[in-house]
Specification:
The protein has 15 helices and 13 strands. With 380 residues, the chain is α/β, with parallel strands linked by helices. The longest helix has 18 residues. The structure holds pyridoxal-5'-phosphate (PLP).
Length: 380
């Protein structure tokens, strides 16, 4: 038998199909319609947050946050280098500068002490990225931010449904950004959301999201026609995709529970490889209730490429993750960084391997992944 085990797989069923069909039949496919507004209200209750604004992607939610907070030329935003490129492009497109801080080697999240050391008089915001769905140390990050008067914009792309100290990721800082991209555990193909408890920020975002107009106010019957009132773009999610998302959120507990079981089974199954000094298992901090978005192991004695190659030969879609941003061609040329600047990030980038994790991964498939990993090290 030829195994084909991808890195991730969406968890769709007949409910999503039905939801798409009913929106198609209604003809109401535009954004900011009844389905989207219904979903936003549902999420506000679920996540205990005052405002949820659906967007076309997490990238757009981050860009919207930067625009709404007037982050601009001369400003600095502190973030990890071990993140997706658009955490940084959202800052750069405003004419501001991303400042890359090193991460904690245990949690792979921003190290609050390092963040503190990155603050200058130009700092305007901190962007913690909740890697793999595990919350950053928000207590200390918020303390640093409040002390210095900085905004906190959470990149919670991986953290849908995850909590830190009982609060949902994305609802703790000034703004939080979710991703519903096809690779995420709650998905509609492409999509995102901005979450905030700040009424003024939400009001500005709903204008930016609607092309700089007050169309949202018009839809609520607060004005009799809509017009251009602020800077803006086009970040509204179609109701067709919102319908898929609502069905996904109804299954959130089930999705998270299935992922948790797989995550924990990897921890048990791979323990011996860690005891033999070959790999480093992921580590959870006690206050973080994860979304189990990524299962990241690290090779202890070598770079990750050979092992990923061995797994690929056996039909397993294991993968490395972020190529650190600070030594990307863009950051070297435009921001003056170079290899060697962030040693923990670089080590993690070279050694991390993501293993398949998704609700329909069977126990037999998971045993096979575990066995192939042992074989990859035994062959050395
Ligand atoms: C940490 C992080 N932030 C942001 C994004 C961007 O999400 P989207 O594709 O929804 O724009 C991703 C996507 O993988 C991500 O991993």
């Amino acid at each position: 038998m030829r195994w084909q085990i991808p890195l991730n797989k969406p968890y769709f069923g007949s409910q999503e199909k039905q939801a798409v069909m009913s929106v198609l039949e209604s003809g109401e496919l535009g954004g900011n319609g009844l389905v989207s507004i219904g979903l936003e209200t549902y999420l506000q209750d679920l996540l205990d947050v005052r405002h949820v604004l659906l967007t076309t992607s997490c990238t757009h939610a981050m860009e919207m946050a930067m625009m709404a907070l007037d982050i601009g030329p001369g400003d600095e935003v502190i973030m990890p280098s071990f993140t997706f490129v658009t955490s940084a492009t959202a800052v750069v497109r405003q004419g501001a500068r991303p400042v890359f801080a090193d991460i904690d080697e245990q949690t792979l999240n921003l190290d609050p002490e390092v963040v503190d050391g990155c603050i200058t008089e130009r700092s305007k915001a901190i962007m913690p990225v909740h890697y793999a769905g595990q919350g950053c140390d928000m207590e200390r990050i918020l303390a640093v931010a409040r002390d210095k008067g900085l905004y906190v914009i959470e990149d919670a792309a991986h953290g849908v449904g995850a909590r830190y100290d009982e609060r949902y990721l994305g609802t703790i800082g000034d703004a939080g950004c979710y991703s519903f991209h096809i690779t995420k555990h709650v998905t509609c193909g492409e999509g995102g959301a901005l979450l905030t408890n700040d009424d003024q920020l939400a009001r500005r975002c709903e204008i930016i999201r609607e092309k700089g107009t007050n169309r949202s106010q018009f839809l609520r019957g607060e004005v009799d026609k809509y017009t251009w009132v602020d800077v803006g773009s086009s970040f509204v999610l179609s109701d067709l995709l919102a319908a898929v998302l609502l069905e996904q959120f109804k299954k959130l507990d089930e999705i998270l529970e299935k992922r948790r079981l797989i995550w924990e089974h990897y921890q048990e199954g791979l323990k011996e490889l860690e005891d033999r000094g070959m790999i480093i298992l992921p580590c959870l901090s006690p206050k973080a209730q994860s979304s189990w978005h990524v299962y990241p192991i690290r090779t202890a004695l070598e770079t990750n490429a050979r092992v990923i190659g061995e797994l690929k030969k056996k039909g397993i879609g294991a993968a490395f993750h972020f190529v650190p941003l600070h030594y990307s061609p863009y950051a070297r040329e435009h921001l003056g960084y170079e290899e060697g600047d962030l040693p923990v990030t670089e080590r993690v980038g070279r050694t991390l391997i993501r293993l398949p994790i998704y609700p329909v991964l069977t126990q037999r498939e998971q045993e096979y992944v575990i066995q192939c990993l042992y074989d990859a090290f035994d062959e050395e």
